[in-house]
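hiii so um. not sure if this is the right channel but i have a protein structure encoded as tokens and i wanna go backwards to a sequence. like what aa goes where. can anyone help
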């Protein structure tokens, strides 16, 4: 499975899937890039277009990791 924005395969260390409050997941790096765009401090979900406010860039790292996706990717990698 991969991030729907950058198409890099998710994992638990480098391409970390984070859940936005709307429930959609994107990698942490892409969410940080979206936060930097105007209006700075706001991320508009690429899927549902819901706006999410984050006071600081570090707040993105506090979003919950999508552990279900991480477990699926790790299981799939072990089966290869």
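sure thing!! here u go:
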């Amino acid at each position: 499975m991969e991030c729907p924005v950058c198409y890099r395969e998710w994992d638990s260390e480098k391409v970390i899937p984070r859940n936005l409050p709307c429930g959609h997941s994107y990698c942490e790096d892409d969410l940080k890039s979206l936060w930097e765009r105007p209006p700075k401090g706001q991320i508009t979900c690429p899927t549902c277009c819901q706006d999410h406010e984050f006071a600081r860039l570090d707040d993105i790292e506090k979003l919950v990791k999508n552990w279900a996706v991480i477990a699926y990717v790790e299981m799939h990698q072990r089966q290869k």
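oh and The first helix runs from residue 28 to 36.
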